Known about the structure:
The complex is a heterodimer of chains A (about 110) and B (about 120). The radius of gyration of chain A is 13 Å and the shape is globular. Chain A has one helix and eleven strands; from the N terminus they run βββββββββαββ. By secondary structure, chain A is mainly beta. The longest helix of chain A is centred in the last third of the chain and has 4 residues, at about 100. Chain A starts with a strand and ends with a strand. Helices cover about 5% and strands about 50% of the residues of chain A. Chain A has one helix at about 100, and strands at about 5, 10-15, 20-25, 35-40, 45-50, 55-60, 60-65, 70-75, 85-90, 105, 110-114. The mean pLDDT of chain B is about 90. Chain B has strands spanning about 5, 10-15, 20-25, 30-35, 45-50, 55, 65-70, 75-80, 85-95, 105, 110-115. Chain B is globular. Chain B is mainly beta and about 120 residues long. At the A-B interface, strand 5, helix 1 and strand 10 of A face strand 5, strand 9 and strand 10 of B.
Amino acid sequence: QQQVKQSPQSLIVQKGGIPIINCAYENTAFDYFPWYQQFPGKGPALLIAIRPDVSEKKEGRFTISFNKSAKQFSLHIMDSQPGDSATYFCAAGPYNNAGNMLTFGGGTRLMVKP
Amino acid sequence: ETGVTQTPRHLVMGMTNKKSLKCEQHLGHNAMYWYKQSAKKPLELMFVYNFKEQTENNSVPSRFSPECPNSSHLFLHLHTLQPEDSALYLCASSQGIGTRNSPLHFGNGTRLTVT
């Protein structure tokens, strides 16, 4: 089974810091890389996604950096806030069939201290 | 308010019980999924339905039995479960298998405890 390796498992930063979560994938056919955010007691929700035709994508304070040659991508949260405390999951799969072929990373539990 | 609703939110059952989890989506999607979320493990895809037809069964034990009567409703019937089946069971939907840019929309899950 194709894996997506996510690190770190947990992360603690101070308010205003820039947490970085990294993911690495194996399947070179993957061309869709979403990040999901999950708050306690809630299901995961799509946060931001990138395709390999660009090396970076920003949406508000969230940025994905993508390195196709290294088969790695990362999530950066600028000016992190306590409300960003959640578990973050990266995933990878084919863009034209993402629904049933996403492979998820193991998750990163982020805590942003006030 | 999520477009994918799961009931019950919490369920405690003995190993000899039979229970069902219910999922309903209000997004007009055609594909529905069951995922298992265990502590310190990646999300595990269990079953996929596309236009009410099962398209994926990821080697899930037969004590889990899915049912999809229509594109809006999905059930997971449980019987003779084991304690290691305790987990958060997530339902998700998307526009349809093979549809481009069709992200998954998750419900809030059912927290299952098998005693």
